């Protein structure tokens, strides 16, 4: 009799512990799980001049704007090519002899690390698109070791590219109209997540920034 009562009580206890574990452990795990260390950058965080007080509320979920560019193979490149991708964006020109070669070397290093990772891409925009034709970009891509489909080196309409630089990627803070006399020259690497949001800025000429980029990319890859 005592043994029967004992087993009945033990069975009830085991059932209680089982369901308790199912409920409590996931909650503990969720609370203890480290949150992303990376901010989401909006216009007000980077360049308040872009934000009108009356429309400030619509700039809280900023994403890179629509674009239609042409890459080193003459193929049209749009947001669809970066859907569900993490990517690094930068701005360069092929005749640059100062910061651009260093930036290209650093992207090439990052590309080598992630060449077999389908989640990661790179997007370079020419700031002298009239000079940097498709054939010029093809030669440039070959010289820099760009992998087709991994590193898109693009040209296109100047006004569109300059608008992207200023109002989508916040790669530069100066103002301009993208006209003939307008010129952008920046060392910024911009990290974009799978939602098209800006998650980091880095000095693309600084070798010491590369480990931080690796770390931040891994954070984004582990985000739910």
How is the topology of this model organized?
Layout: H1 2-32, H2 43-46, E1 68-70, E2 76-78, E3 86-92, H3 99-113, E4 120-126, H4 134-144, E5 151-154, H5 158-168, E6 188-192, E7 198-203, H6 210-222
Parallel strand pairs: 3-4, 4-5
Antiparallel strand pairs: 1-2, 3-6, 6-7
Arithmetic mean pLDDT? 86
* Class inferred from helices and paired strands: alpha/beta
How many distinct folded domains? 2
Strand fraction: 15-25%
Describe the sheet with the most strands.
Answer: 5 strands, mixed
CATH superfamily of the largest domain: Glutaredoxin
CATH topology label of the largest domain: Glutaredoxin
Classify the helix fraction into a percent range: 25-40%
Radius of gyration: 24 Å
Terminal CA distance reads: 53 Å
The CATH first-level class of the largest domain comes to: Alpha Beta
Read across the widest sheet, the strand sequence of neighbours is: 5-4-3-6-7
Please describe what this structure looks like.
This protein is α/β, with parallel strands linked by helices and 224 residues long. It folds into two domains: 1-33; 43-222, 3-Layer(aba) Sandwich (Glutaredoxin). The chain is built from six helices and seven strands, in the order ααβββαβαβαββα. A five-stranded mixed β-sheet has the order 5-4-3-6-7. The protein has a two-stranded antiparallel sheet with strand order 1-2. Mean pLDDT is 86; it is low at 16-20 and 24-34.
């Amino acid at each position: 009799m005592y043994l029967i009562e004992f087993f009945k009580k033990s069975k009830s206890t085991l059932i209680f512990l089982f369901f308790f574990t199912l409920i409590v452990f996931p909650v503990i795990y969720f609370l203890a799980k480290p949150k992303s260390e990376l901010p989401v950058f909006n216009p007000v965080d980077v360049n308040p001049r872009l934000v009108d007080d009356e429309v400030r509320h619509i700039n809280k979920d900023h994403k890179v704007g629509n674009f239609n560019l042409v890459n080193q193979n003459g193929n049209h490149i749009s947001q669809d090519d970066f859907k569900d991708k993490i990517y690094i964006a930068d701005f360069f020109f092929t005749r640059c002899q100062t910061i651009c070669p260093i930036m290209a070397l650093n992207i090439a290093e990052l590309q080598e690390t992630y060449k077999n990772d389908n989640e990661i891409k790179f997007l370079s925009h020419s700031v002298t698109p009239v000079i940097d034709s498709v054939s010029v970009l093809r030669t440039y891509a070959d010289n820099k070791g760009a992998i087709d489909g991994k590193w898109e080196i693009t040209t296109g309409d100047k006004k569109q590219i300059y608008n992207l630089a200023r109002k989508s990627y916040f790669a530069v803070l100066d103002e301009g109209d993208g006209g003939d006399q307008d010129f952008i020259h920046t060392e910024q690497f911009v990290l974009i997540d799978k939602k098209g949001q800006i998650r980091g800025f880095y000095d693309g000429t600084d070798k010491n920034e590369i480990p931080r980029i690796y770390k931040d990319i891994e954070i984004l890859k582990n985000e739910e």
